[in-house]
Write a structure and sequence with these properties.
Helix content is 67%, strand content 1%. The protein is mainly alpha-helical. A two-stranded antiparallel ribbon has the order 1-2. Strand 1 and strand 2 form a beta hairpin. The protein starts with 7 loop residues before the first helix and ends in a 5-residue tail after the last helix. One of its GO terms (molecular function) is cyclin-dependent protein serine/threonine kinase regulator activity.
Length: 303
């Protein structure tokens, strides 16, 4: 495997928190613009990965009253978080190695820097990301086997494969923190002997610090201070702790949607993906109200 310092992962896929926020906003805005133009952002993915959009709405601005209401950035985030957990569940069900799970999650996150969930339904994309991760990590599982194991159509996995690769710019090698965590546990001093260790392993070190806070194995800050002093490490203790604190802040902000929230968001995203589902939902609602009204009119009065 190539060195992280010269990898496409480091050069192209490391972002500041603010940069990530901006990218998600841009993807959301592109989807809303497509919704305004086409009436639905649903796209057809051909076998070669090319995309076909529906015909634009006729007239100026189309029929705004018949359009589905788009998701906002926060709703998209909650839906992505839900399916990130589903990726973990699926990988555990297949007993895949941690590296496959980490790679699939990374593919999923990168994909939705380019697209909105209103354009590609995350349940479909998550399965394709798992399938692609199995390939790149040399733990090949057929699409048929993967689809059968979680009761999904394997053809959907294959149909989305090329668009996933294209959205990743074919940068398929990713670096996960697992190896670093194992190395820290075996001998933490090795971390400080590695050049540019802070950039490469801060996620792993943050995870180790949180675990140590829970179990109280050692005085973590004192230990790091003594090791940095002995090894002439390139970064100061305050710089290292600042990076770990920033990671902790993001972890504390992490929010898992409730079942009710997810149902509401899922209904919205499906109406964006398929405008007919929005119309069908309205018809079912009207039909239910009509039945309820008929039932009350036909009910005998009490004597």
């Amino acid at each position: 495997m190539a060195d992280f310092q010269t990898s496409s992962h480091r050069a192209r896929w490391i972002f500041t928190p603010q940069e990530l926020v901006e990218k998600y906003k841009e993807a959301n805005q592109r989807a809303i613009e497509a919704l305004d133009k086409f009436g639905a952002t649903r796209v057809e993915v051909d076998i070669d990965g090319t995309l076909t959009y529906p015909e634009p709405l006729s007239g100026t601005g189309g029929d705004k009253h018949s359009r589905a209401k788009p998701l906002n950035v926060d709703e998209e985030k909650l839906l992505r978080v839900f399916y990130e957990y589903k990726i973990q569940d699926a990988c555990q069900a297949f007993d895949f190695p941690h590296k496959i799970q980490a790679t699939a999650l990374m593919y999923f996150k990168r994909f939705y820097l380019q697209w909105s969930v209103m354009q590609h339904y995350p349940k479909n994309i998550m399965l394709t990301c798992i399938y692609a991760a199995c390939k790149i990590e040399e733990n090949h599982v057929s699409a048929e086997e993967l689809g059968k194991g979680i009761s999904q159509d394997h053809q959907m996995i294959l149909n989305n494969e090329m668009i996933v690769y294209q959205s990743l710019d074919f940068d398929l090698i990713v670096y996960a923190p697992y190896r670093s965590v194992e190395g820290f546990v075996n001998d933490m001093e090795d971390f400080c002997q590695a050049e540019n260790g802070l950039q490469m392993f801060q996620l792993a070190l943050a995870a180790l610090r949180r675990s140590n806070n829970a179990h109280g194995v050692l005085d973590f800050e004192s230990y790091l201070s003594s090791v940095i002093a002995r090894q002439n490490f390139l970064h100061t203790l305050s710089e290292l702790l600042e990076s770990l604190d920033a990671i902790d802040v993001w972890i504390e902000k992490h929010y898992i949607p409730t079942a009710d929230e997810l149902k509401r968001i899922d209904r919205k995203v499906k109406s964006c993906l398929d405008p007919s589902s929005h119309d069908k939902s309205k018809k079912r609602e009207k039909k239910s109200k009509h039945k309820s009204k008929r039932g009350s009119e036909e009910a005998p009065s009490g004597g």
